[in-house]
Fold this protein.
Amino acid sequence: MRLSETFELVWATGWEERANEHLPHLLGLGREYPTLVFDFQPQWGSAHWKLSAIERYADGRPAAWIDDSFNDACRFWARHRTAPTLLVATDPAIGMTDQHVEELEAWAHRQAA
């Protein structure tokens, strides 16, 4: 919830619009968030199928992407965007931690400076 003060949050999950049926309640977020619609069927263990939808949504703006399944295509995309881009890798067994939130907030602060 802390990140919603600094970031425009959006779900980028294979659950698509179903994310709001479950995740806000399970995570205690207290609200729903926009969801991305993907061009391809999700592939287990891979995040590249999300790239085109994330790129369309970011639309040249700075973007931070939090995921537990980055691959080389994701890292290539992040390095070659003209807008500032941060990939934050999480452990699927743990999820986001306070350390991730602090990293994201520090990155956003640097972008604003």
